[in-house]
User: Fold Pre-mRNA splicing factor ini1 from Scheffersomyces stipitis.
Amino acid sequence: MSRHQYDLIQCMKQPGKSIGLVCSACEGRCPLCDSYVKPTTKVRICHECSMGHLNNKCILCANYLGDDKELGTPAYYCLECVRLEKDREGCPRIVNVGSLKSDMMIRKKKEQASTPALLK
Assistant:
């Protein structure tokens, strides 16, 4: 979870057997502290986050990973989070879209709606 975006909410349910996958943009990042240093332990996510509409999405940014998850790579906790036992707190999947990202989506929709009017 990004340290700089305080509006993001993690799932935090009991982790299951499924391994959390990340997209190429988030590859190498620790899902708890955003560190790129010394990845050690694979991220486990809960059963609910590994099923349904969240199945083929990155656990950090919710980017689509493809039908067979061919674009995803396993997520890892950094050594410091493992030492502090933060990896045992629960499922680290981000379950909401932050206000910055939702504002960006709304702005893009407004721009796309106004663009055809300018072309006429």
Remarks:
- The chain has two helices and four strands.
